[in-house]
Amino acid sequence: MHIRTLSTLECTKMLTANRVARLACAKDGQPYVVPVHYAYADNHIYAFSMPGKKIDWMRANPLVSVQVDEHGEGRGWKSVVVDGRYEELPDRIGYKLERDHAWTLLSKHADWWEPGALKPVPTPVSDSTPHVFFRILVVQVSGREANE
Predict the structure, then answer these.
(1) Which domain holds residue 58?
(2) Are 138 and 16 in contact (CB under 8 A)?
(3) Number of folded domains in the chain?
(4) Which of 84, 80, 83 is nearest to 144 (CA)?
(5) Would residue 115 count as lying in a domain?
(6) pLDDT at 123 > cutoff 60
(7) How large is the average pLDDT for residues 31-60?
(8) Is residue 65 a contact partner of residue 20, using CB atoms and an 8 Å limit?
(9) pLDDT score for 119
(10) What is the CA radius of gyration of the chain?
(11) DSSP state of 109
């Protein structure tokens, strides 16, 4: 097995080409990892969610990591890890352009909203939509690839 480091350009191409990542956040010394659907552009990872544990934890500690991987031939693989900072895009004055940009990027893909909007238990019906658009500012990116 041969392992090599991916260039920044290769990492960026891989982030752009994929839609599912693993988001890691931490609170009070406890890590938490969840899959998220995302879109990558402008050195940011854009995503959508309903309020819950990951949003609460990222609000408490905005330092996060994101991991994307691909399976190659045989035992081959590629992996990119992003260290970044959570930035919420609230539905209020001053964030309209960023929210619209996030929506535009995410909505290019079928059913982009569904993974972030569905919960395993029924949610009460309300007059407001508590969904959260957010982005992760990419502070550092690294990647590796393994080939036989």
Answers:
(1) 2-119+130-147
(2) no
(3) 1
(4) 80
(5) yes
(6) no
(7) 96
(8) no
(9) 47
(10) 16
(11) S
